[in-house]
Amino acid sequence: MHTSQKTSALRVLIFIIIIVLASSTSCMHGKQTTQNISALPSKVNTSLTVLMDTKAVLCCYPIPLTNVVLITWEIILRDRPTCKISYKEETNKTTGECTKAITWASRPDVNPGLQIHPVALSHDGYYRCQMATPDGNFDRGYHLQVSVCPKVTLSPVKNRTAVCKAVAGKPAAQVSWAPIGDCVTEHEHWDNGTVTVWSTCHWSDSNVSAVTCSVSHLCGKKSLSQRLLPDFRDLGYPVSSLLIILYVKLCLFMVILVMLGCIFFKNIDDCRKVL
Which pLDDT score is estimated for 245? Predict the structure, then answer.
């Protein structure tokens, strides 16, 4: 296996692990026993990638809820005002509200995790769980990035050329070809953070009749195959000669069509004279 293929496979494995962890519907809290809470770090930040249209659950700090006085989630989304939701143990009440897709994962006195369902591109941002205890405050933050699977297409073009597109992916996909041709790759960035990648390749070798485009992304790897349209020069004639041949054939066809028309109308006139 080539190094690039190993790297792609490793990325896919890591992404699947992240998705499984992020999609978990439970966080370990109430039954957990921590010997010395004050020995824990007061702040932890994690980078997390989740797939669009899935469900993600972000966990708070793994400490027993019996020691927690106040739990607050602060959500800072891109191009949106900051919102907060809180739970106070003394009153057993929650306050604050974000979007319909961002809610408590369960009852906050049982599981103070935050649920995002379904995950959308607009959920890119920073999420922080603040837990106030008699031993101090503990913060757990998530830099959340939403991944979007691209739509992959492969189209043949004239003269032994093909175009492979990975449309609106996030992050940008990587395109490779088999066999390798003379290729040019371009990127188009959209306002929502997605990127369209297209690669245009030409194969001068007439022995290459079919090609395969492979698109690698965090979502996985997808391959499409397509037969190439022939180059006129593959037929053994220069392009100018082929155009002349086509023009002559078209002229002959028009002459035959006119002659048939004349014969047809002449027969009509003969019939009229007889009548």
Answer: 66
Q: What are phi and psi of 4, to 5 degrees?
A: -65, -40
Rg (the chain; Cα; Å): 32
Q: Torsion over CA of 104, 109, 113 and 119, rounded to 10 degrees? A: -10
3 state SS of 238: coil
Q: Please report the beta strands in 7-120, taking only residues with DSSP state E, as ranges in sequence order.
A: 43-51, 56-58, 70-77, 83-88, 93-96, 102-104, 114-116
Q: Got the DSSP string for 155-181? A: EEETTTEEEEEEEEEBS--EEEEES--
Task: Show the tokens assigned to 250.
Answer: 């078209």
Phi-psi region of 10 (alpha: psi -120 to 50; beta: other; left: phi over 0): alpha
**0.90 exceeded by pTM:** no
Distance, CA of 24 to CA of 141 (rounded, Å): 17
Strands ordered across the beta sheet of 56-58: 56-58, 114-116, 102-104
pLDDT single digits (tens) 49-89: 999 999 999 999 888 888 899 999 999 998 889 999 999 99
Nearest alpha carbon to residue 190 among 166, 174, 214: 166
Task: Write out residues in the chain with pLDDT < 50, as ranges.
Answer: 1-10, 12-25, 28-35, 239, 274-275
Please, what sign has the CA dihedral across residues 254, 260, 265, 269?
positive
